[in-house]
Amino acid sequence: MTPSSAGATLTELLAQPDWPCAFAEAEAPHALAAQVLRFARTHPDCTHARLLWALGLEQPESEPADASAADVQRARAAAARKTAQWSADGSQLALPLSAQSDPAVLLLDFAPPPPAQHLPDHWPSLLHLADQLLQRALATEALRASVAGLARSEQLQRALFAIADLAGSDHDMPEMLRGIHAIVGSLMYAENCYIVRLDHERQSFRFLYYVDLEDPQPPDDVPLSEREGTLTWYLLRDGRPLRGPTEQLRQQVSGPLHYLGTDSYDWLGVPMLRDGVVQGAIVLQSYEPGIVYSAEDQALLEFVGSHILTALERKQHQDVLESSVRQRTAELAEANIGLQAEIVERERAERLQAALFEIAQLATADIDEEQFYRSIHRVVGGLINARNFFIALLSEERTMLEFPYYVDDMRTGRTARPLGRGLSEYVLRHGQAMLGNIEDIMELARQGEVALEDAGTPSVCWLGVPLLVGDEVIGVVAVQSYDRTVSYGPADQELLQFVASQIANSLNRRRTAQIQQRAFAQLEQRVQERTQALRREILERERVQHQLEHQVLHDALTDLPNRGYLRERMERVLALQRREPERQFALLYLDVDRFKVINDSLGHLAGDDFLKQIALRMAACVREPDLVARLSGDEFAILLEDLPDVGAAVHVAQRVLQDIGAPLQVAGKELEPSASIGIAIADSRYRHADEVLRDADVALYRAKALGRKRFALFDASLQKHAIDVLAMEGELRVALLRDQFVPYFQPILDLESGRVQGYEALIRWNHPSRGLIGPGEFLRIAEDSGNIEAIDWWMFEHSCALAATRLGPGDWYLTLNVSPLHFRHGDFSERLLGMLARTGLAPSRLVIEVTEGSLLDDPEGVRELLGRLRDQGVAAALDDFGTGYSSLSYLHTFPLRIVKIDRSFVARLGEPGSDNSEAVVASILALAQALGLEALAEGIETQAQHDALLAMGCRLGQGYLLGRPAPVEDWV
């Protein structure tokens, strides 16, 4: 507390606001910022206060809004350091409200003389609270903006759907345009609206729609020349939207402006374009002061305008189509006169077809015989006059004539009779239809074809048609007339013949009904048999379904439960644990060591067999209800339920490592597999299965980092390490953006003469709080987080630029360490050569260092890439030779210039018992000499190592003895 504030009276202290409540009551960010400034001004020496936040943006927010560039720079510097920053004279203070990332910063100016550089004790807690409330208010404001944007998008989508519906509706054009006007009015102010359509051929435009509260309806069709210089004319000619009051519009148009009608307070017009060509325009205007159109309204109207144009085109095309249809209809009406006769004939054919179809349906209808015949009589009566109608059928012995249906005005019904010489028998004998009047019947009687006593009451006209089934006559259907006004002709005969064939078929079908019923009984039996077979099929399908469910939740290779099954099981165990908090379980996350080597060297089939045997060994190490699952590739997990204590999980892990480590025969090779295990003990802290999997995976990572073939328990330190890794990942991204990396150069010397032959570029991180950091502390994290390539390219660019401009002339070269990831990009060589061209470093001065692992990933691709670089002058060196696979084929087939002897061999030279190291180094030197390669020894730290290498014929070397890595200034 300053002296002036220390002397405040009790009354003055009581009159001060309750600042936490004042901060909490301010909901908006600027309102809260205003309260913070009020609080800051309570300092008796404060003359001016500003609050800045969102400093990561190009234009930060501030209260008041007139923050200068210097204010922003001071605020950003204080936020980066997360501590209060006093000016040199103590008259200015930049104070972060909290130590969180991206805090708000309070800038204070003090009257001279400046106060002591400290603040009242209660300030930090109040300002920290204000920062938390400000972050919450910013998040709330962002959410509200997002919700408003979504609502606006939904409203626009509904409007577009409504426009599309109008275009496809049966409304006429005016009604559709009124609907479009209403839709636009739902999006923005549109009381005054008109839509015009441009006719390019006629050089005119039409007012398709016009609604205005001030001006009258203009002519529908207006030549463009009559409206030259008007706003609508500029819209249609230039094809650019116009918005604003008259004075702004005069500045937007490309020529003099002639205003027609009442001057509007604000005007908005957008062209409607199709493939970049103006097709029309839609215009809104406001005569009300205060109602103006925004840029958002303009963009929205442009977007909606394209859909309105589509709707207009669809409606106009529909009108054209309807006009064409009307014209075509008139033409068809003229042609229809000549088709009336054909239509009548077709209608007759349709009636006949319907009758035949109905008779065919009667054959299978569930009706009795009497109803069947009455229905046939009704159908025939719909075709011809059938007032007197009967059907006569031959008996099975073909000796009697039966009359199952008989309707006649002269007699009621008729019984069966022996075959005689009646008219029905005449038709049966000849198998042909008979049409005759009374004279024809008398002539047949004279000829002896019929007997009048058998013919019954003489009719004025008689028509009978045989009922044929195939070639067999089974009966007769006949109609007759006793009225001279009713007679039958050839057309009636033809109709009855068609009907008779269908009647015969129907009768035949009904006669075979009993046979069909017997067939149905047999079919029912077969259905029952088939039902049994289907039941068996259903059971089989259920079995297959269960098998599929098993396959979905199990690994196809090992038949172990998969990740999905494991997560479901863990969620159930966690739910049980929430009900019984004293329960705990463990998850063992296992990764098979060096499985990729086994898979690549022995083949995928051998790798699959290897995983199966590993799975069997793991399954043998657990008991019910514990679970072994395969997560992916060579990753497995063991879920231990009802865990009595941590020791039980450790015991299982030890047993698993022991059983897996037993020798294993795969593809004729004896392998000694091993694994790394991470253990997470799940207690009531965990809420979800993924949290347990995450911690077990972190522990697995630790076990692998400690040397594999072991297990590691997850604890708080691992969690802290994971958090530290996340923090460093963020810091690495910031370091890349702020150029916090520094290239260091270590000299490569001729061991005999001591002359510098080249330099190796090594990266250092000038951390803002931790100082200079070596690559060992951050490169692994950069690789895991995906930042390594960006960091490498930064290092390449800056190292080459410094070497080209600072190291001067001479016969030196520069070596760069290249991550294996770069060789997976086909354009790496082109990008590297482009970088050299930009920095000015000659390709002949560059040597890229590759590891043996880089050559393993894609040998052919890497060989081709190195060859392209060699052709341009860029050389290659094999780094850390002797620590990897050390295949002679690398040295023989790859275009290499230098072999670097790993420091692990150099470290033992000159010491007692170093014979093995000397033999290895001598072999590498001999091999390099045989292949015409230069040998370079790394890690020379003692004179004894230097002398031993020189004695063995090694010409080049680098190490702390010869020169430590240093900035380029140290080597200039």
Fold and architecture overview:
The protein is 48% helix and 20% strand. The chain has 32 helices and 33 strands. Strands 25-26-28-29-30-31-32-33 form an 8-stranded mixed barrel. Strands 8-7-6-11-10-9 form a 6-stranded antiparallel beta sheet, sandwiched between helices. Strands 14-13-12-17-16-15 form a 6-stranded antiparallel beta sheet, sandwiched between helices. A hairpin with a 4-residue loop joins strand 6 and strand 7. The two termini are 54 Å apart.
Q: What does the overall shape look like?
A: extended
| Percent range of helical residues | 40-55%
Broad structural category? alpha+beta
Which stretches are poorly predicted, pLDDT < 50 over at least 5 residues? 1-15
Task: Tell me briefly what this model is.
The protein is an alpha+beta fold and 972 residues long.
SSE arrangement:
Elements: H1 3-6, H2 10-15, H3 19-25, H4 29-40, E1 46-53, E2 61-63, H5 69-81, E3 85-86, E4 92-96, E5 105-110, H6 123-168, H7 173-187, E6 192-199, E7 204-211, E8 221-223, H8 231-238, E9 242-244, H9 246-252, E10 266-274, E11 277-286, H10 295-337, H11 340-364, H12 369-381, E12 388-394, E13 400-407, E14 417-418, H13 423-430, E15 434-437, H14 438-447, H15 452-455, E16 461-469, E17 472-481, H16 490-511, H17 513-552, H18 563-579, E18 585-592, H19 595-602, H20 604-619, E19 627-632, E20 635-640, H21 646-660, E21 664-666, E22 669-671, E23 675-682, H22 689-705, E24 711-713, H23 716-737, E25 741-750, E26 756-767, E27 771-773, H24 779-785, H25 788-806, E28 813-817, H26 828-839, E29 846-850, H27 852-857, H28 859-871, E30 875-881, H29 888-893, E31 898-901, H30 903-906, H31 915-930, E32 934-937, H32 943-951, E33 956-957
Parallel strand pairs: 23-24, 26-28, 28-29, 29-30, 30-31, 31-32, 32-33
Antiparallel strand pairs: 1-2, 1-5, 3-4, 4-5, 6-7, 6-11, 7-8, 9-10, 10-11, 12-13, 12-17, 13-14, 15-16, 16-17, 18-20, 18-23, 19-20, 21-22, 25-26, 25-33, 26-27
